[in-house]
Amino acid sequence: MNDIDLKRREVLIAAGAAAGAAALPMKASAQAPIIIKFSHVVAVDTPKGKGAEKFKELAEKRLPGKVKVEVYPNSTLYKDGEELEALSLGSVQLLAPSLAKFGPLGAREFEVFDLPYMFDDSAELHKVTEGPAGKALFKKLESKGITGLAYWDNGFKIMTSNKPMKTPADMRGQKIRIQSSAVLSAQMKALGALPQSMAFSEVYQAMQTGVVDGGENTPSNVYTQKMHEVQKHATMTGHGYIGYAVITNKKFWDGLPADIRTGLEAAMAEATKYANQIAQAENDDALAKIKASGKTAIYTPTPEERAAWKKALVKVHTEMESRIGKDTLQAVYKETGFKPD
Ligand code: LMR
User: Fold this and answer.
1) Less Cβ crowding at N or C end of the chain, within 10 Å?
2) Which atom in ligand 1 lies closest to the alpha carbon of residue 100?
3) Considering the entire predicted model, what is its pTM?
4) Looking at the predicted structure, is the pLDDT value of residue 12 above 70?
């Protein structure tokens, strides 16, 4: 993002805070259901895509004629870098950005989820998202006019590239697309790679045209965006995690009639359970399909190679401590039992 874009975003966010009234819901009536636009950047056939559809189904079933949920997948309404402004302005009511995308909003603490090898498995991750640390992170969004509603899973990342990658040394000099997170940038630099932050909607083309050599993502995102068709290699590094915070405009949410808010909360709780239940299977299935396509060679590092990836990357924890904040870091370590050294 250049300086002009940054300035534009600041102005829009300030305008959004001032124009809270625009985000207030219309009174529900038989003629005019409350329209809830839910925008996201991934395909329908992903954990988040299916979670959003499930929320629509459940919310409309619980509140017939009172709400209408419109889901806009695949960046069809807003792209990364646009959607948070749109939420602030009241042009959209629900988003589920990846936890790696809250830094530009000033909520740098969320980048704790990007730290390499922070979570051994999703059970450890859930201790954070479903415990006090997850709640404390949501609290930090309130001053930005945002209410956090739920954490949704995707899964662990693989590295993909047009060049083979067995050990961290193979990453040297490679241009790798990252999400807009300073932790992910530090992570790629620790490998000697050249991080390129870009919107999710632009990744396929950047890979196809050689603007980047590779990226890091979940099998589900790789497969549904057809990245495997333009990436010759994938390595099962499992070095980091992608998940989401489902968020809404605080003024919009607080201004809803109580019965509607309660109904939507119940629908969200159920949709969350569903999304988190299917996430692992969606990723396993996508990985199997990538393998079956024969277009991407999948490499699983040996235990020694895996240790080398971890050794090269864990230093990012200490490097990023002041950005994330000691309190947040310690609160997450307490749940995961992770020790950087
Ligand atoms: C990415 O930009 O790679 C992911 O955050 C996309 C997503 O929402 O899963």
Assistant:
1) C
2) 5
3) 0.91
4) no
Domains, the chain, with CATH or none = 3-107+122-153+243-279 (3.40.190.170), 158-240+285-336 (3.40.190.170)
What spacing in Å lies between the alpha carbon of 45 and ligand 1's midpoint? 14
Closest C-alpha to 271, from 96, 94, 45, 55: 55
Q: How far apart are CA 273 and CA 305, in angstroms?
A: 35
Give the separation between CA 15 and CA 121, rounded to whole angstroms. 41
Task: Find out whether 298 and 234 touch, Cβ atoms under 8 Å.
Answer: yes
- The rounded Å distance from CA 76 to ligand 1 centre is 14
Nearest CA to ligand 1 atom 5: 98
Q: What is the pLDDT of residues 215-251, one digit of tens each?
A: 999 999 999 999 999 999 999 999 999 999 999 999 9
Instruction: Give the pocket of ligand 1 (CB within 6 Å).
Output: 41-42, 98, 154, 179, 200, 217, 221, 242
